[in-house]
Amino acid sequence: MAIVLGSHQYGKAESRLVRIYRDQARHEIRDLNVSTSLRGSFAEAHLYGDQSQVLPTDTQKNTAYAFAKSAGIRSIEGFGLTLARHFVDHTAPATGARVEVEEYAWRRAVVNGVEHDHTWIRAGEEVRTAAVTVEGKGEEQVAHVVGGFKDLVLLKSTGSEFRDFLTDEYTTLAATSDRVLATSLVARWRFSSAEPDWEAVIWDDVYSSVKQIIVTQFATLQSLALQQTLWHMGKAVLQEHPEIAEIQFSAPNKHHFVVDLAPFGLDNPGEVFVAADRPYGLIQATVTRDDASDAGGAWAPGAGLA
Ligand SMILES: O=c1[nH]c(=O)c2[nH]c(=O)[nH]c2[nH]1
């Protein structure tokens, strides 16, 4: 029997990076959390403590800050691509790189009825995410881009059912044809290809369109289960966006239990609930095209986000 080193990668996780554009009176802001990982010939560092091929994680972090100035940040997908390509193209032992970025949104403060030039209020609806994987050098190089969001908290106060489910001797859940459906949604969509000349506007347009499609499906579908809601969300996104190969969802079912008010002589036809934080159902699904391009390492997590 031999003991061998398995898969390995290394990088700097969660560099908090704020880029202000201040060349005009009306400033712009991008507020990011950047994680980078290198993959490649790094076994010697593990096996023998040989750092000669190890570009320090500190350098990876510095590169992210330097690129925020020199290349700028027009979209997190584009920024991730630029950084990941740089690492693979300029670091000899790196055969792959993974860059994961979260973006925290700000909206302009309104002062005397006017949007302020340089004061913002955190816009906390959801966190936008991007995960870029670059594999191989030169002509062989491929790039995978996964856009997405996390923490999009949605609730509908009717239009959701859960009934006719399988039961056994441990089942106590009552069937319902009218319940609250709530989730804190994670969605990640993989682009079929990563066109180097795509402008920020394309990444941004796709982002707002996908989010709107997801919200619309959540609102308008008479949901028989969260599983069905996810399927319809994914199908609608793929129908509308030929540039997306597949989409993954992770959806906690944030249960809202009707409180029994009978002891107090009150009826409760779905008006007062306990919002339980745990345990929660966790429904996860991928909706894909049957001819989707090869995902390579697109979904393999890097140093930062799972
Ligand atoms: O939408 C749901 N899907 C389930 O699989 C499930 N299981 C459960 O107890 N409640 C629900 N709700």
Could you characterize what this model shows?
By secondary structure, the chain is an alpha+beta fold. The protein folds into two domains: 10-139, Roll (Urate Oxidase), CATH 3.10.270.10; 141-293, Urate Oxidase, CATH 3.10.270. 23% of the residues lie in helices and 36% in strands. The strands form three sheets. Strands 1-2-3-6-7-8-9-12 form an eight-stranded antiparallel beta sheet. It has a two-stranded antiparallel ribbon with strand order 4-5. The chain has a two-stranded antiparallel sheet with strand order 10-11. A hairpin with a 6-residue loop joins strand 1 and strand 2. The structure holds uric acid. The site of uric acid has 8 residues, from helix 5 and strand 12.
Task: Give descriptors for this structure.
Uricase, Urate Oxidase, 23% helix, two-stranded antiparallel ribbon, globular, 2 domains, binds uric acid, urate oxidase activity, alpha+beta, EC 1.7.3.3, purine metabolism, 306 residues, 12 strands
